[in-house]
Write a structure and sequence with these properties.
25 helices, Leucine-binding protein domain-containing protein
Length: 651
């Protein structure tokens, strides 16, 4: 092998350069052959043979001989071959500046095959100097264009590592496949081990996509050359560690033959999908990736749940496992996976659709589920379904009524979900049954005589004085406010939407901020409130919800302490969904903290522990952020009064 490598590298300097590293597609042409003298070739060949066949120390030991060769043959073209190997030795020693300088010297002589080897050295030096992105740019065009095996091995290792360090996961996985295919037979086992170690650093979702892409190609590759076997092995380990039933099933469907020694364990995990299991003290969190809004809410809910469980505090005993309902999975599969990981209580429902499916799962599997968004009214029954959340539309109703009481009508609704804006359409002339101004939100959700949010027959938003509902998908146009002479405006969209509307709205318009509008309230605006929420610094002249006592009072010491605790680990005050997630986390912890400290799969014991969690959550008391109530009080829907406050005297 050494003799072949030496002869091949000499061919780069003395024969047609295009035979080895030819011109890249669309690139500059490689220079003609270097005219090495026969005497220089005869002297250099054994040096290159020893370099190609040597270990690191043996290569470094060749430096004096290569320097002497270059000195004797300074005018010979093959001196560049010696120079590039001296650059390699500098690289091996960690002298990266010298390696780059010598490689650049060879490259400066013009594009050639030996110049491509110099580029490999320069790219490797950049990567080892902590510059993976520039290194990747230098090395990627050379992949599969190097003829010498020992040069090719250096290139493949360095370019793959550069991609990994640059977080270019898709390219890194592709390059791992090239590296494995191009490795010499005697080096392939070591290369597989290196790739296996690198795969541990690749995010799991990228590995799953690689597995799916590999199956889609249908390419048949011998086992020792098949990267899919290494990807499948890594995913199998992850599935077993996380007890991820959905991933185990996908591995069986897509990579059964590649699972190797992991096959039996993965089949066992997949077969146990419906097995009851409780691990102490574990809470499961289901997120949604179905829409941009649900993804945003999911991130905020997850932050709140982690805070409520105390995961960011030293010494926390809580364990949180999470899944999402995106990709090719379903709510049932994701929730099954969470129960397989031992969750005794589940938190779910960042939108009505997911909440309704999660409520059905709770009843079917007899496991308590805390819903961050109310489900369809028909899904509220059952001992295992707990509703922590609130319909976003309720804060809009309260604010619209408050604006009307102040004479700031007609009212425009800006932003919010499409279904909420649809409900805000004006009622037909003469429509009966309109709720009195200010009635919305006066009764706690779930209290006797109060219709659950979203219930059939609930008054549409138009009956609360909303004359116009505007989306906020693009640039907000203030001209839309003029024909109906809008005097009040409820902002229900995200921060970007709210800021656009504020800049465009006339100063005569009174502003109100609904729950999801996460911006600092302008002076003179109305802000929807629920319990301690929103947790903001008290503005001058702030007004508490009706019935809260002295209107000049500032937010409670409890609110100040809660905000301080949150800001200790977060850059800004909690959003409404983060606050709901926090309350769900607090209540979930009440359900699991006193369960036995050992795991179990015994069906009777699992049933008993889940019922114990139900009982504990039903009667738990704690300071909550989104309601003045201190718990469910034996019910299944968290009581909540929606109010408002004024943020100042002038806008």
């Amino acid at each position: 092998m050494a003799a072949i490598a030496a002869a091949a590298l000499l061919a780069l300097g003395a024969a047609a350069a295009g035979a080895g590293c030819g011109a890249q597609d669309g690139g500059a042409p490689v220079s003609p052959a270097l005219a090495g003298s026969p005497a220089a070739q005869a002297e250099l060949r054994p040096l290159l043979s020893r370099f190609a066949n040597g270990a690191r120390a043996e290569r470094i030991a060749l430096e004096p001989e290569l320097l002497a060769f270059r000195g004797r043959h300074a005018s010979d073209d093959l001196a560049r071959v010696a120079t590039v190997h001296l650059a390699w030795i500098a690289l091996e020693r960690g002298d990266l500046r010298r390696a780059e300088a010598l490689a650049a010297e060879v490259e400066a002589a013009g594009r050639s095959a030996i110049g491509d080897l110099a580029r490999v050295i320069r790219g490797a030096a950049l990567r080892r100097a902590g510059k993976p992105r520039p290194a990747f740019g230098v090395l990627r065009p050379l992949v599969s264009k190097m003829i010498d095996p020992y040069v090719r091995e250096l290139l493949n290792e360095e370019v793959t590592t550069a991609a990994m360090e640059a977080n270019a996961w898709t390219q890194a996985i592709e390059l791992m496949s090239v590296w494995l295919r191009e490795a010499d037979d005697d080096r392939r086992a070591a290369v597989r081990a290196q790739i296996g170690a690198q795969l541990r650093e690749v995010p799991i979702d990228h590995l799953v996509r690689a597995l799916r892409a590999g199956q889609a190609t249908g390419e048949v590759v011998s086992p020792e050359l098949d990267l899919r076997s290494l990807v499948a092995e890594r995913l199998a380990i992850v599935a077993r560690e996380r007890r991820d039933v959905a991933l185990a099933k996908e591995l069986i469907d897509r990579a059964d033959a590649a699972l190797g020694t992991q096959r039996d364990a993965i089949f066992e995990l997949a077969a146990g999908a419906d097995a009851a299991r409780v691990e102490p003290p574990t809470v499961g969190l289901l997120l949604s990736t179905r829409t941009p809004a649900s993804r945003r809410r999911g991130v905020e809910i997850a932050a709140g749940v982690a805070h409520g469980l105390g995961l960011l505090r030293p010494g926390s005993d809580a364990r949180l496992v999470s899944r999402d309902d995106g990709g090719e999975g379903s709510v049932d599969e994701a929730l099954n996976s969470l129960t397989a990981e031992g969750a005794a209580v589940l938190i779910a429902g960042s939108d009505r659709e997911q909440a309704t499916e999660a409520a059905k799962f709770a009843r079917t599997h007899a496991i308590p589920v805390l819903l961050v968004h109310p489900p369809e009214p028909a899904a509220l029954d059952g001992a295992f379904v707990f509703v922590v959340g609130e319909e976003p539309a309720r804060s809009i109703e309260v604010l619209a009524a408050a604006l009307a009481e102040r004479g700031a009508k007609p009212v425009a609704l800006v932003g919010g979900d499409a279904d909420v804006r649809k409900d805000a359409a004006p009622a037909p002339p003469g429509a009966a049954g309109a709720a009195p101004a200010g009635a919305a939100g006066a009764a706690p959700a779930g209290a006797a005589g109060a219709a659950p949010a979203g219930a059939a027959g609930a008054a549409p938003l138009a009956e609360h004085g909303i004359a116009l509902a505007l989306p906020c998908d693009g640039t907000f146009d203030a001209r839309a406010l003029r024909p109906p002479a809008i005097r009040g405006m409820v902002l229900a969209g995200d921060a970007r939407c709210a800021e656009q509307a504020l800049r465009a709205a006339p100063r005569s318009v009174t502003i109100a901020l609904a729950f999801e509008t996460a911006i600092a309230p302008p002076p003179g605006s109305l802000v929807a409130t629920a319990g301690l929420f929103p947790l903001l610094a008290a503005p001058s002249g702030a007004q508490p919800p009706p019935g809260a006592g002295d209107p000049r009072a500032t937010p409670s010491s409890g609110a100040a302490a809660a905000l301080a605790a949150w800001l200790a680990t977060h850059p800004s005050p909690p959003s409404f969904w983060a606050a709901l997630g926090r309350d769900a986390g607090v209540l979930a912890w009440a359900g699991v903290q006193r369960l036995p400290k050992t795991g179990t799969e015994d069906p009777a014991e699992v049933k008993a522990r889940r019922l114990a969690a139900v009982s504990a959550m039903s009667t738990a008391t704690a300071e909550l952020w989104t309601t003045s109530a201190d718990g469910f009080g034996g019910r299944r829907v968290l009581p909540r009064v929606i109010g408002h406050r004024e943020s100042g005297k002038g806008r």
